[in-house]
């Protein structure tokens, strides 16, 4: 794990709905707590499965390559856009806090920077650092209302004898806290229990991208 570089991501609107530099934005008709497809020209045409929890909660976006196959390991991209009032946000790739890779992100106290941490929990206790998944930091930003983090994960699509479902809905869970982490600059920092959490299930079709678009996007980042 390493600190996220200060790189431009997506400008964030003051109203809480994130937008990209070409004015792509959340559909104003969108109901909170539902999934949708989000494509960004600022990201080279990359498309995401998007879950917009609520105005005061994070937005989660997932992108995968279209050549991914069931029960195989492949890189995935996770983007998290969170209100400044939140101290950390987490995402569980297997739909539960326990026995699957967790990606936890938080602002690290430096302007425009954030920390990303790969975690694992065997019980409902503080998740420990997980070496079975590695995170490549792609970008981060912060403005007056939100902070945003994007990572590419190797090891989040398949773990033990489980993995993401490419033949139907995959189940994910999310959590966040209004409390700051203990040591924001350290990816191994402890943090308080979440103040809110939830689960959603959706096929990954919205987040599929051609191999060229997906590979070019994650490889152009340092």
From TrEMBL:
Domain DOMON: 88-177
Keyword Ribosomal protein found: no
Pfam families (UniProt xref): CDH-cyt (PF16010)
Keywords: Signal
InterPro entries noted in UniProt: Cellobiose_DH-like_cyt, DOMON_domain
Extent of the signal sequence: 1-16
Keyword Ribonucleoprotein on entry: no
PANTHER family linked to this entry: CELLOBIOSE DEHYDROGENASE CYTOCHROME DOMAIN-CONTAINING PROTEIN (PTHR47797:SF5), DEHYDROGENASE, PUTATIVE (AFU_ORTHOLOGUE AFUA_8G05805)-RELATED (PTHR47797)
Designated name of the protein: DOMON domain-containing protein
Species, as recorded: Podospora fimiseda
